[in-house]
Amino acid sequence: MVLHMGYKRYTALLLALVLLMASLAGCAPEEEDFPVSSGPQVTLENTGEAAGLKMAYTQLDEAYQKALEEIIEKYRADFPETEIILVPCDTEQQAEELLRTGKADLVQVDSGSQPALAGEGLLWNFYPYLQVWREEYGLTNAARQAVYSMGARQAYIMPADFRQEVMFYRADWLDAYNETQEQEEDKLWCRTWGQISAVREKLGEKGRLAIAGKDRLGDYFDTIMWSRAGRGAMINPAAGYFAAGMDEGDTLFATQAAELASERIYLTMNEDVLPGSVDWTEEEALSAFKNGEACMLLADSSHTAELREALPQGALGVEGFTRCDNNRSVFSAGFWGWGISENSGNRETAIHFLTYLANADNNTHIAKAAGTLPLHGEGLEMEPSLKEGERAVEMRMCQLGNEYQYACRPDMYREESQAFEEEYRRLLKAFLQDEITQEEMLSQLNGFWQQVYLEQPNTWELKEPEEDEDEESGNE
From residue 197, how far is each of 114, 172, 265 by CA, in Å? Predict the structure, then answer.
């Protein structure tokens, strides 16, 4: 063929082949070392140089601490020049001081304290290192939301476990009713807000829902609005009130999703929940459920064993957090994990250890030993026994990523968020008691966050910047 091909055509063909081979070679990044589009290239590695890491904690479950110590020994076997010491602290203030001074490299951090610690510059943003961590793509929805809960291109905590609500219900009551129904569509379930209403209608007073409305009323409105709108309607799920079109001024409170949420929460709180539980604490809601005053209870999953012990054998049923009629639930979960001090002298070693601790193999071991939720979806396949036990429902939620998704309030604006909490509850209660209209409530909620966004548009990076077409990326 070459003999019958002109010299210029042959040269052009040869050049094209060379370029093609070069481009293919560029698609295969070297081990743990490739460019990050968000900034300078970083390397996720332990160099083997002598280093000491101090991990400060305030409260660790005995089983978790034991599993953590096992992973530390395993890490030290691979990297003998790295010494890791656990440092117990009596108070969160003591741990924060170690974080502030850099005397502790890693510190146990709760999602509630993250905004203040990150806002003060005490926590190190290790986002670029997660972009070269090969197991980042396998994180569950809950883990991913926790990691990126402070906005775009920001990561301050590697989560260790989560706190989230589930639906507890009297399985014996629903089973007894369902046995009398011949048609499947006439049977009672409590997986959606609409089904909760049906249970109350069919079972009467004992078919009501118990809630901890004193602390969670706003959370329930959030989840209904977010579930209706979907995460795609948000500028960033880490700031769940800001709509994708925030540059035009409106928040999600100005959307149809908020109107539908208003209608649903008005119905649920005025007709379906136990009278007075809008003002109850979680302890009061738990007590009412244990006493047989309610058929359903929304409460933290940590109460599963307590409730199972309090009710007759086989009486307790557990479902995932309540979904909307579109079969989707977008809600907020608390979490705790490990952050790295901005003032640590061993930050690169610390993040290497954190990703080692959080990889699928080690994290699944901890989940099995300590009863924590796995950070990786594959963990449930690696260890099928995780699908059993007291957190079985939450494990199932990890697998149903399309049905159970996560978002957060814009808590990075911590002062405004704290002020909003009281105002939010005041407006919701006024609406539920017919003191203000739906339009008045939503207008004030929209105006509050609209003003925050317009006055502080660049305080936190919320939008994911568009990639430069000429910018190289090792993730192709």
Answer: 37, 18, 11
